[in-house]
Amino acid sequence: MSDPFGRRGDDKNSTIDRRRWLQAVGVAGAAGMAGCTGGDGTDTETTTETTEGNALGTETATPSGEQDLPEVGGTYRTVSSSPAETLNPLYNTENGAGNLIGYALDMGYTFKPGNEVMPQLYDLTTEDGGKTWTGTVRENLQYSDPYGQVTAEDFVYQVQELHQADWASTADSSAWPSEVTIEQTGELEFQITLPSANLLYPQTYDPLLYPIPKDLMQPYVEEQDDAGLQEDQELLNLEFTGNLGAYTLEEWNRSSGQTYSRNEDYYLQEATDQFALFENAPYFESLENSVVQEQASRLGALETGETDAAAVPPERVQEFDNLENVDVYLIPQPYNEVCVYNMRENGWNAGPGNLFREKKFRQGLGCAVDKQTLVEGVFRGYANVEYTWQPRWSRWYPSDADMMEFGTGDLYGSEPAQSRIEEAISNVDHEYSYDSNGNLLNPEGDQCTITLYHSAGQNTERSMAEFIGQEFEDNAGIAVEVNAIQGAQFSQEYWQQEVPENADDLEWSNGSYNAGPRDVATSANAWDMTVVFGLNTYPLNPLAGEVFFQKDSFYNPYGYYPSWDAKDLFEQANNAESPEELEEIFGEIFVNIAEDQPMAMLAFPSGRTGYSSDMVGPAENFFSGWNFPGWYREE
Fold it and tell me: How far is CA 312 from CA 40, 199, 458, 514, in A?
């Protein structure tokens, strides 16, 4: 249950915002897409360095013959660290809320072990090399009364009238640019035509859609009422979901959590060709999610059996794995740990100008942090060093390339850090300098001091922030103030920009996550650095991540302008005609990203999720959770 797009977010579980919203920041979209683990809603997620076979699992054999089915009964209990801002499927961009939506509402498709597409609501096929894709909708999909059967028209209308409309600010708008066309070709069939062939189109997550009744959307479309659609009670409370999810939302208490009941008419019961246990899924009579903000309380609930799933911090993995009633799974994830620099006008508050904009300065900061010590100390070895925008087990990782590995070997320490920073400050108009003690001084003669924000209540993240701050002071001579903040507050007041009044006159203005050029569009509050969000590296198809590296994309809260021709290289990748051609282009892209250091790329932690030992279903691969409706409790 994760949004393909990637913001890791405050919950830091094994998935992310539920839509192609970013399908970007701690945000993900389809069950199992990025290693959904049933929505444990807890403290970390990302990836481990394993072999591709281990990380991606192996293809699931088609079942045959009679299958013994588990008994239905009991309650599956989860915990999350913060309340959901919205459960509106059209507008949610948060990972944790995406999981909560996913219990009651499936998306079009997901992926299962072996990197195999599994049709959920519809199947996607192509016969012309990836330029035209046909979506075939299942026949047995039903909304709640009075909306009737799900048809192709619902998906086509949603795209044409919402995602491709200028007035609507849906989370999926970026996935459906005007040059992509969608049309209904039958009651249960639609066709998507791309401007150029894309062999990995399903892996971009762009064609992932929720089923939303046309009759529910139409009044808002006719009035172009974006605010009204966001606040529609049927959408917010998932009242229309019929047989489209494993569970039915019964109650949503905004501060304390959600309760669900078993959907006895779940449509995937007819998909036994995909997984035998779907036949009578789901196997719990109810599901409960509780908001438990303190990590210690979440872990206590796991230890005592009050919850069936919770993330486990690295320093306590062995302790919990030794408990008879808990099994800890290390699950590869696509989200990285990054220290993001604010290159907008209200970033770098240590003095005049913005040194973060200088490539050599960012490289110097990259040399300041010992990544291996970070992995071993903060993550206790349950992570792998990151040098560029892919985990090593990804097919697209440029393992044979000559890539700069900042934070390791000769590219770690005070000399490589300060020599690059000195080169950077010699090229700016302001008089920065180093004193005899290795402190970086601003033009006023004071040591440069900057802020670093982390999510409140996230102990591992706090330790990481403190380690980064100490390394910056020791090796770069920059003092760092580490501050805790709630993830939602940081998103709204620091990460997002205020849209300028003259937005129409700007070179671009693409919404609150890139409201315009970095000199004119800023957030309400100034900030320097953050580790609040991890980002999705899209190891199935890195094309989905180009949004992070384009200055005028819809997602550039940090104001990064690449010094390399990112637009051209990603365009080449979009037009590639073979996987081998893609490998070559991606290799060049990832070498450029490593050199340009758009942010400090630090580590790929594994998801460390503790489950009740009687739980049957979780797996230690990237797709753990694809079959969550078939999970059950072993007697």
Answer: 11, 38, 11, 34
Q: Return left, alpha or beta for 157; rule: phi > 0 is left, psi -120 to 50 is alpha, else beta.
A: alpha
Q: What string of DSSP letters covers 503-542?
A: GGGSS---STTS-S-TTT--BSS---EE-S--BB--TT-G
Residues 547 and 24 sit within 8 Å (Cβ to Cβ): yes
In a domain, 350, yes or no: yes
**Residue whose C-alpha is closest to residue 608's, from 228, 229, 186, 326:** 326
Q: What is the pLDDT of residue 60?
A: 66
CA 314 → CA 374, 452, 520, distances in Å? 12, 22, 41
Could you tell me the CATH number of the domain that includes residue 180? Answer: 3.90.76.10
Do 214 and 76 lie in a common domain?
no
Name the strand (E) or helix (H) holding 258.
strand 257-262
Pair (364, 500) in one structural domain: yes
- List the 529-530 sheet strands across, edge first: 383-385, 600-605, 337-341, 529-530, 449-455, 479-485
pLDDT band at 197 (very low <50, low <70, confident <90, very high): confident
Round to whole Å and give the CA distance between 97 and 1.
10
Stretch 535-542: mean pLDDT: 90
Query: Do 318 and 169 belong to one domain?
Result: no
- CB neighbours of 10 closer than 8 A, spacing ≥ 6? 26, 81, 82, 96, 455, 458, 486, 487, 488, 532
| Interval 4-46: pLDDT, tens | 333 343 333 332 233 333 333 332 222 222 223 233 333 333 3
* 253 inside domain: yes
The two structure tokens encoding residue 37: 């683990």
The reply to whether 93 and 183 lie within a common domain is no
> Which domain CATH number covers 280?
3.40.190.10
- Mean per-residue pLDDT, 403-431: 97
Domain containing 143: what range?
Answer: 122-243
> What percent of the chain lies above the pLDDT cut of 90?
77
Is the model more confident about 39 or about 271? 271
Amino acid letter for position 292: V
The model's pTM is: 0.77
Whether 613 and 598 share a structural domain? no
**Per-residue model confidence (pLDDT) at position 314:** 85
In the predicted structure, residue 49 carries a pLDDT above the cut 80: no
- pLDDT tens for 579-632 read 899 999 999 999 999 999 999 999 999 888 999 999 999 999 889 999 999 999
CATH code of the domain covering residue 443:
3.10.105.10
Q: Where are the alpha helices (DSSP H) in 23-145?
A: 52-56, 95-104
Cβ 2 vs Cβ 24: under 8 Å: no
Q: Is residue 111 part of a domain?
A: no
Residue 112 in any domain: the answer is: no
Q: Are residues 350 and 470 in the same domain?
A: yes
| Number of compact structural domains in the chain | 3
Distances (CA, A) of 531 to 10, 245, 460, 463: 10, 34, 11, 11
270 Cα distance to chain centroid: 30
**pLDDT band per the 50, 70, 90 thresholds, residue 144:** very high
Same domain, 95 and 202: no
For residues 406-438, one letter each, b for 16 or more C-beta atoms within 10 angstroms of the residue's C-beta and e for the rest, the string is: bbbeebbebebbbebbbebbeeeeeebeeeeee
Final residue before a domain boundary, out of 178, 211, 243: 243
Residue 29: CB partners within 8 Å, gap ≥ 6? 2, 3, 4, 5, 17, 18, 19, 20, 21, 23, 98, 107, 205, 208
200 and 308 fall within a common domain: no
109: β partners: 119
Taking residue 599's Cβ as centre, other Cβ atoms within 10 Å add up to 25
